Amino acid sequence: MKTTTIVLFKNENQNEKQNNMYGNVQHMTSLEIAELTGKPHNDVMKAIRKMEPAWLKVNGGNFSLVEYRDKKGQLRPCYSLTKTECLYIATKFNDEARAKLVLRWEELEMADVRRKMSDVRCLPEPQKILALADEIIGEGLRMINEGAEDTLTATQVAKTFNMSVYDFNAVLRDMGIQYRKGGRWNISEELEGRDFVRFRTHVSYSLKGVKKIRTYMTWTLNGLRYLNAKLGYPNL
Questions:
Q1: Gyration radius (Cα) of the chain, Å
Q2: Cβ atoms within 10 A of the Cβ of 106, count?
Q3: Residue 41 CA to chain centroid, in angstroms?
């Protein structure tokens, strides 16, 4: 495998995140993947090597292997992956690590949008900016929210009980079914682990590129059956 010598970091302890561009294609190194996911870099390298044969068979090419200088000034190998390659590797990560990686890619892509917008000669209309942001956000959110795809929001559930969402949330709070903390509703500790709720993530960007992330609770079919039994409104 061909190795390209590129000094990506001053040393392995430097926390500055890199937005690497090779041939106008963004890349992320295995060093940053390790930092984002909280995994040792050696473990990330092993995971990538283990998945590389299948990628080579399907895609016809190896992952890009580059080098960085460690704190002793010695050259060490690391991988430099495209977004598609990163998301392929992330299939082996847990949900939290995968979500961090997806959101980091959104940051990189939005940074590239802001960079292009800084050139007033090619400044797009606001509608085009929002459309581009929606496209970037949508791809990542589909992965993060896959587990909550078939769930219902509090507003949707409240309608089945002929309640406003405000009254619905207040009733569940008073019954000890949920509580509010950190700006969102959470299922009570006694009901955790019963697959009553899931969480969705919503990401939006302003025209200035300011990122806003909101996570909110949704209800599964099991959760709706539980609410039916508790509230006495048999809507199933």
A1: 22
A2: 20
A3: 20
